[in-house]
Amino acid sequence: MISSERPLPTAYREFCYSRTGGAPEDVHHVLAFCDGFIGEIATMASECAVLGVPAIYMANTGRGYTDEQERRYNLVKNVRALNWEALQPALRWLCALQPDECEAARRRLLADCIDVSQFVVDTLENFR
Predict the structure, then answer these.
(1) What is the rounded (10 degree) CA torsion for 24, 26, 32, 38?
(2) Residue 25: per-residue pLDDT
(3) For 49, which of 11, 69, 87, 91 could close a Cys bridge (C-beta 3.0–4.6 Å)?
């Protein structure tokens, strides 16, 4: 699946998410069943990590949260150069990962994070 804000070359159009009838509100459901993610959207790369889907985030600039997801959980690979040579090691990393490794890392990540919704509820209910 390819999601793009720009028109794709003809050879890739059949893989375009919006062209195949994919609704924007269903994209996370689709991502949850992917083997991996490669893109320049840090939020989507991070969301994949939370879903246990390994992600390659390619951008000239970094993001602290994807750095942490790489360093602590090995669920994201940050690629700071937008070229084939920089992407190759990340692709090897992606292909070498096992699903059980990703699921274990996902569980660790979720265990290390607070439930923000519950935090807000608790804060509002106990506000004095």
Answers:
(1) -10
(2) 86
(3) 69
